[in-house]
Amino acid sequence: MISANDLSPAELAALLHFHADAGVEWLLEEGAIDRFAEFEAMKAARRPATQAQPQPSLGERSGAGEGRTPPRPSATARPAPAGIAASGPQPAIPDGEAVQQARFVAETARSLAELKTAIEAFNGCNLKHSARSTIFASGDAESGIMVIGSAPGAEDDREGVPFSGKSGQLFDKMLAAIGLTRASVLLTQVIPWRPPGNRAPSAAEMDICRPFIERQIALAEPKAILLLGNFSARFFFGENDTIHGLRGRWKEIAVADCVIPAIASLHPQDLLTAPVNKRLAWNDLLAFQAKLKSLSLLRN
Asked: Is 36 within the bounds of a domain?
């Protein structure tokens, strides 16, 4: 086996990128650990202590005679398995409490800058423990135009900005085709932290993150929203159809007493996977462009 000490800096960086793309979040030990033998040793260590404990009499078990509560046997400490540190990412607070805390944090933010700081300090979602970056809105908050993606991918998490890598390059071309740039719109994602292995966020994780994205919308006050991807469309439209059934039609989403027109389209990653769908995405972009012109948000 090749040791990491034998790799050049470039080779080591490539190896780390490979592990990150594969969904590996934590590196523990260089050598293999026999967990079965470790478990048997733990059982053997506890067995003599259990056998040595005196058994309570019938009277002690029932508490009869003197009304005393029988003493509790002392718990035997379990040693931590080798190779795993005792300290590490702590589990998030209970989901219901985390949602309430997220709502309070979001509602008290009076600007996007304050909200960004609050989200970066928030520790109530387990997704944050495995993510490298917190993805927040970027671009022109005064443009009246908002583009919302789904959840950060591996490249987004690595770079710290939404729509990075190859899908980001295609996204830039999509915007340019209708006269927009990243700098001329407000760009964000529904979930601020990448789910491990790019899995779909759980229902609890979506509930915890919902106040953050809704507060971003409320503070930015966009006049039109473009939703990219199946998850983003389902999240805001409240429907379970696929992106092919949700795309291309203007709908209204209500956030903080505001009703905003929104249209959904395919995510750039979907287009890289199935280029035949680019025609559908182009029709959606033209509809978005026409709406922006009608709202005087884009020059003719």
From this structure: no
